[in-house]
Amino acid sequence: MNRKVRWGILSTAGIAVNKVVPAMQQGDWSEVSAIASRDIAKATQVAQRLGIPKAYGSYEELLAGAEIEAIYNPLPNHLHVPWTTKAAEAGKHVLCEKPIALNMEEAQQLLAVRDRTGVKIQEAFMVRTHPQWLATFALIKSGRIGALRAINGFFSYFNRDPQNIRNKLEIGGGALLDIGCYPITVSRFIFGAEPRRVLGLIERDPKMGTDRLASALLDFPAGQASFTCGTQLVPYQRMQICGTRGRIEVEIPFNAPPDQPTRIFIHDGSDLGGNNPEVKELAICDQYTIQADLFSRAILENNEQEIPLEDAVKNMAVIDALFRSASAGNWEAVQEGIG
User: Which H or E element spans position 11?
Assistant: First the structure.
């Protein structure tokens, strides 16, 4: 029987209690030992519902808990860096929800925190370790679609609630930070490189000020990636990866269902309508379980985690450049972000 890492959950955020915690509880290497809320009654209620042994009435109490080895931080975006820092200084490893910071400079601060405290810190991009993306990457590396030249993505949902944290500009709301970060990280992963320059186009909500519609073009050494994301559009997501001899389409690239197989479609270009592709079906899995277990194993075995913190800084550098581009109306170079 594997020893499991004892996790503490920093808040009763919806993504934590509805998706991440139940998935972590299914893991072979992860054990959810405690959850905290500023409202002890709420923490207790959630703990009882999810079968979590301990509830805390403050985040500070959770971080002081001697039984906790790792923290999952699903707080609103503007609290990611402050509370990840506090957790690290308390000697806890941290898996922090994306985006890990509000900008590249904030993300860079965590590099110093990690080096000073000696803990592991990782941005929670669960898609990067999902089997469907690992399979897609392997197909491309094998030459299945020829030379990789273009990636195109779309990610959207509809939410106009001004009280929702995703629609509050001052705490990091908006399309690019919330969901645009996904096609960016996937494009960087698939190309295996950083974009040299980017072009961004943004439309802001006239009342909330958040970017509700954003499109981007990323110029990589070997090709180009483009995507559109929106917070006031019909829900949809898809990624297309095109090479000189074939195309791969990832059916549900980001919110992969935990209760049914995922599929990627491989096209050879013989049918412009995209009919009768080769279908590669991946076994049912929960990407949040995989994410937590890989991080837990890295802790227990003292190995490098799957996605280094430096990668989070580089992703934020691209987002920053897109905001600058949209404001200036020009191509913007991407800062290196490390150092």
Answer: none
